[in-house]
Amino acid sequence: MPIFAQEPSNNQKSDFWNHVRFGGGIGLSFGNEFFSGTLSPSAIYQFNPQFAFGVALSGTYNSQKYFYKSTIIGGSILGLYNPISQLQLSAEFEENYVTVDWDNRTGFDNENYWYPSLFIGAGYQTKNVTMGIRFDVLYDSDKSTYAQPWMPFVRIYF
């Protein structure tokens, strides 16, 4: 009994990149002798209108004059689920490497450590923009790279 295999034609091109969407975030905060800047590019693969999975990189620099400087470098994996087109549920695991350089006057020792975050979120989606809130279930007030476990977000993917 003969067995036949189907070979892809050279004219057929993969549609992988048609399902990839790029986005990310930029953050900037400054005040009286304080500065914080963040850059976070990301990409997701849109499996279908309901499911997407992606990765992100992030880098943050913080400083407060006469107190500390910190650098946070990390990455994350992200899963998105849209049960209906306007509602987006998300889960994101983030791992950050934190370096804190305390000013000599503070009496604190400099720190270098890894810190994980696991966010569960929900948001309202319209076209390529989603606005919502997420919660870090691994939040530790002594080590977290964020001030609170709850945080609003805006996601934009093109």
Question: Could you write a compact summary of the structure shown?
Answer:
The chain is mainly beta and 158 residues long.
Description:
The chain is mainly β. The protein has a domain at 51-156. It is 0% helix and 65% strand. The chain is built from no helices and 8 strands. It has an 8-stranded antiparallel sheet, with no helix packed on it. The termini are far apart. This is Alpha-ketoglutarate decarboxylase.
Structural class of the secondary elements?
mainly beta
Largest beta-sheet characterization: 8 strands, antiparallel
- Our count of helices gives 0
Helix content: under 10%
The counted number of beta strands is 8
Distance between the termini: 50 Å
Spatial strand arrangement across the major sheet: 1-2-3-4-5-6-7-8
| Radius of gyration, in angstroms, nearest whole number | 20 Å
Provide the low-confidence segments as ranges: none
Shape: elongated
Oligomer: single chain
Mean pLDDT: 91
Q: Which H/E pattern describes the elements? A: EEEEEEEE
Please report which band the strand proportion falls in: under 5%, 5-15%, 15-25%, 25-35%, 35-45% or over 45%: over 45%
Protein name: Alpha-ketoglutarate decarboxylase
Organism: Bizionia arctica
Question: Which features does this protein show?
Answer:
single chain, 158 residues, mainly beta, eight-stranded antiparallel beta sheet, 0% helix
Spell out the blueprint of helices and strands:
Blueprint: E1 20-31, E2 34-46, E3 51-64, E4 68-84, E5 87-102, E6 111-126, E7 129-136, E8 150-156
Antiparallel strand pairs: 1-2, 2-3, 3-4, 4-5, 5-6, 6-7, 7-8
